[in-house]
Every structure is written in structure tokens, then in C-alpha cells.
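Notes from the pairing session

We agreed to fold both candidates in a single pass and log them together. This is the raw record for the first candidate, unedited. Please don't reformat it; downstream parsing expects exactly this layout.

Candidate A
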Amino acid sequence: MKEMRPIHPFPARMASSIVLSRLPSAKQQPLTVLDPMAGSGTTLVTARSKGHIAIGCDTDPLAVLISKVWCADIDQDRCSQAAEAVVIKARQRYRHISQAKAYPSDADDETRSFIKFWFDTNARKQLHTLAEAISETKGTLVRDFLWCVFSRLIITKKMGASLAMDVSHSRPHKVYDRSPINPLKKFEDIAAKILKLCPFDGSEDIPKSKVYKRDARNLRFDDGSIDVVITSPPYLNAIDYLRGHRMSLVWMGYQISHLRKIRSNNVGAEVGFKGDLNDTDFTTILKEMGVGDNTPDRLRRMLIRYIRDMGAILNETFRVLSKNGQAVFVVGDSTIGGTYIKNSRAIASLGKRHGFKLVSTRRRQIP
């Protein structure tokens, strides 16, 4: 099977080749496959393409949206017609909207200030009318598809509907005085591109995927209900996905304060542990990770927070796996403040503590 092209930009996505190498065809062995930190859904799409039951979770609302659409059975004609209808409705409203009204209706002052900083007046007016028309569209899946199209107007590397570059890498910086694209003109083109990339149309007799907005530390699935887990947890000082994603999400009704709470609770966030730095459960693993006694307290607290969170994830993963289930964790080591941190050692050690047996380790150089 050739590698499927993603429908939406997403930083540091999982390589589908890893998933392909770990899964047989469902004709040989049907499996229930879980990615508890699914991101844009590479594991889910790949597992479903081989005929397996694919289940994913994530706390990032945009990741959940992208995964749902990429994994879904898409009615091409219906989605194309809906995109056309949204543009027609948005154009009609654009002529009459004032600058003061060109914000999401429920945006608070902080969110409005954020939008005003990143979007010029004309782009705001166009995005507002598009968002309003999308929210009125009937059918959850069609509406989700349209939101993906909307988000791709903004989440780009170079030229999008905002005044920023590098939004797709979650490193937005303001470089434009005016939006380099016209959202109303681009919407249907982007819809057509996404439709070409959607791999499923319902013609094949394969199980539907399921994607949930859930935390990998509290999966809420039955004990022993999963055959295979394939996931790539956030690394230490992880990519701040929501730094870029919030530029789309604010138009979907999310407040900046809400997104800030999600960010601060994410695994890999640079937020410190509040408890005892000398707890032996943590200090033993810190030594395995290559962390010495002279490491600054701020970094030690950040590392302990990561260890605690990954321990909770591994505990939940072991709980939901079947008796002979397997888990694949794709992990990158990190360098923070000149200190080389062996995250992979922490995962291996925590896995053994929570009931796993380390079967094999493979390494590859990241370009």
C-alpha cells in the first residue's frame, strides 16, 4: 500500500511506514488498533486501510477534527456541493458585515484581541462569514469536512489567511501587513484538494474508525479491549501544537483561555512538577535518562512531570491491552539546555514498572 497523503498540515506526524510494518492484513488477523495520542490520524488511517478497527484519542480539538475527517467515509458530491453553498452564503453576507462584527459571536475580549492581531480586517470579515455559514451546515461529518477546509486556509507554511508564516509548524510569526490570500476565493479550491486526498468513500466493507476527544492518561475503554497500540507520545519540550492550531480554533468557538488550559495540561509541556524532587520513584528514572544531580531544579521538575504523565499513559495502555496485546511507542530523545535527555530510557523503564515486557528496540536517525 502506498503512503497516504495527509489532508491537513500537521507538525512531526507519525510515519505510516511504522504502522504498516506492525500490522498484518485484517484478512489474516482482524485487530482492534488504538492510538491514544492520535494527532492527525496516521495510525488510524493506515490501520483502517488494512481492514482493522481503528480507534484514536487526542486532547487537541483540531487533531480530533482532522482525524475524524481523514478516517471517515466521505461523500464527495455532497461535500463539494456543501463547500459551494457555504461560499455563496458567505459572499452574500460579506457585503453587509461591519468591521466591528467580524469576530466569532461568542469571542471574549482576549480572543478578539488575538484575532485582531493575527488577521487583517478584510480577512476577518471573510473568515467570519465562512465560519458562520459552516456552523449552519447540516450533517456533522459534512460540517467537520468544511471546518477542515476552513482550517487549511489558515494553517499553512507560507501564505494563508492570517498575517503569519510557519503556522503549520506551530511557529507563527507575523510577517504580512495584509493577508496574502483571499479566503472566499480559495475555499472551494482547498475543498477539492482535500476531497482528492480522502481515502475512504464507503465502497469497501471495512470497519468504521472512532475518534474521541480524550486524554491518554484516562482512556475510559474497557480492560483488555485493545489488541495493538501504536502511538508517538510527545517528546520532552514537545512541539506546542496549539500555538498554531489556536489560529483556526478561535473561529470554531474556542476561547484563548480554554486553549491555554489544554496547552498547560499537555504531556511534554514545559510545566514543572509541584511535589518532592527527591522522590526515589522519580530520581531512579532520572538517572537512567542521563540526568545528573547538578541539573537545575526547573529542568528536574519538568522532567519529573513528564515521567509522571508517561507513567499514567503506560498504566492506562497496559490496562486496555488484551492479554497478548502489543504496544509500539515511537519516542525521540531530547536535548534541553545542553543536556541530552534519554526519553526512550524513561519509556522502557516505566513500561516494565507497569507490566510490559520490552520485546525490541529499533533506532533511526531523524533528518
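Candidate B (folded immediately after A)
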Amino acid sequence: QKMLSGLDVLVFDIQDIGVRYYTYISTLALAMEAAAEKAIPVLVLDRLNPLGTEVKGPVLDTEFSSFVGMYPIAVRHGMTFGELATMINEEGWLPDGLKANLKVIQYMGKPNEKDQERAFKPPPSPNMPDLETAWNYQGLCLLEGTNISEGRGTDKPFKILGAPFINNLELLQAMSPFLDNNDELDTVSFIPHSIPGKSANPKYQDILCHGLKIINLKDPIQCTIHLFKVLETLYPKEFQFLGTNFIDNLYG
């Protein structure tokens, strides 16, 4: 609140990636809330949603609302930040009946694939280097609720996954019945390292992990759900959801 003292307007200009778990949505909501409390107008400079307008995945049950998902929207929400801000405001989702004095400067033109790729230059965050990573992240982020590495601590976050106890050939074979014709996975082995500014304490730091490399996935959300079932079948003792039940906050 002190940071907002004396401001005439709060300008919000941040690149989102189109996935509910990505916490910039919560940052937007908290900024709107703080501005509304001080009667400071909010100006959202809209940007494209790099994953497009298609909506996919479960809608959050607000019983599991948290910083990685505050509102009842789908995992792949299909909205721009201007649309999200308007929805948050008009649905009355800000606490205590607050409403922001909101103005959205709309995105000009219709984004194409080059625009979608350009949204990652510079990367929206350290572990989100490109469009392919964002596409995988809509499903593979769910691994953060388990003891499986999602590739943090490597140069391929959300493009590889694994754990020390996995037999990668066995896992690849077990996943094959659940893959679409155009899906492509391969085996991989990797060692997560601490990368300052990117991933300070990754899972299985300095330990050899085995698992899968994502080359192409049509539906990362559905594929990750199948992956959980396969891991539970192959490694019933080793594979675990975290005791914090973080998976509930993510999946909603």
C-alpha cells in the first residue's frame, strides 16, 4: 500500500502465457485490489495470449484457491490479460465487493505465430524461454505437485521430466497407449543443477534422473494425467504426490 502512495494511475504491462498456474494472473488481481482500495485507476496494456483462444482443462474449484490459481477459470484460459482483468472486475471476484477503476488498452490487430513466438523475447520468466515450453507447461506444471522433476535445474524446463527411480524405457513403453498419433516422446537422462536466478534448489539436485523428453504433445494436460496413472502403476512405492497436497491447488 505504501508503494502506491501518491500515484495518479497504476499501469499494468506484463506478458502472460495463457495458463492458470502462471502467477502473473494473481499479481494482476492483487494489483487491481490494492489500486481499488486507494481509488487509483488501473490501466492494463493488453498483450496477446501466446496459447491462443482455445480453453482446455479443469475449471478451478475455489475451495482450492491459492496464488497458483485464484479464480474459477480453466487451466488454459484462452483470455488476454485485458479480458481477464475485465472478468475479475465484472464478476465481482475482488474481495469485499471492491471494483477497480479499470481501463484496458486493447491489443491491436490479430496475432499470428510470429507474434506468439515474439512474446517470449525476452522470456516472461526465467524458466519460460519459448512457446514450446509454455505449451508443455499447461500439463507438466502439475508435476510440481509430485516428487517427479519437471526439468528445473536444466536448460530444458518442462521439456523433460524424470526421477532417479524411473526406468525410462519402461516408462516410454507404458505411455505409448495414451499418445496421440502426432505425439512424440523419447527417453532422457539428466542431472538437475542449481542455477542462480533460474532454479536455486531444484528437485534431485546433482542426482542422475531418468525419464522422458517431450518432442511433441497435442494435449499436455491429458497426457500428464495419464502419466500420473502410469507412474502410480509402475512405481507404487516410489511415486508420490507431495504431502502439502499442492496438486489440489494446481489442478483445482
